[in-house]
Amino acid sequence: QVQLVESGGGLVQPGGSLRLSCAPSGIGFRLQTMGWYRQAPGKQRELVASIASGGSANYAGSVKGRFTISRDNAKNTVYLQMDSLKSEDMAVYYCNTFPPLTTWGQGTQVTVSS
C-alpha cells in the first residue's frame, strides 16, 4: 500500500527557511526518482524539484538557488530545504515519485507572511 506523508510546513516570514520531510512507503523508495510538488490556490500542481536514486537533482527555475532537495535512502526519506522563502512560495507541498503516482498524500502547508 502506497503512503506518502509530508511534514515540516508552517508559517514563516519572507526570507525565512523551512525544511520539509517525506517518508514514503510502498513505493520501492531507493529505486525511485522522487519529487517535491506544490499547489497554490487557484493554480495547477507543479514540480518544484526532483532527485534521482543516485542523488542528481533538478529544480524549477523559480526555486533554483533557494531550495535544496536531498534524500536519505537508509531512512527512506526525502527532504526539501527551502531558504529565502518568498510569498509566491506559499502553497501546499507534496512529495511523490517523478513522474508521480496517482496516489497523493495530504501535503504540508507552507505559509509565507509577515
Structure description:
The termini are far apart. With 114 residues, the chain is an all-beta fold. The protein has strands at residues 6-7, 10-12, 18-22, 34-39, 46-51, 57-59, 67-72, 77-82, 91-97, 108-112. The protein contains no helices and ten strands. Strands 2-10-9-4-5-6 form a six-stranded mixed beta sheet, with no helix packed on it.
Question: Portion of residues in helices?
Answer: under 10%
Helix count, DSSP H or I runs of 4 or more residues: 0
Radius of gyration: 13 Å
Spatial strand arrangement across the major sheet: 2-10-9-4-5-6
Q: Which secondary-structure class do the elements indicate? A: mainly beta
Any low-confidence stretches, pLDDT <50, length ≥5? none
- Average predicted confidence as pLDDT: 96
- Strand composition percent: 35-45%
Q: How many β-strand stretches?
A: 10
The geometry reads as: globular
Question: What does the main sheet amount to?
Answer: 6 strands, mixed
Give the helices and strands as they follow along the chain.
EEEEEEEEEE
What distance separates the N and C termini? Answer: 40 Å
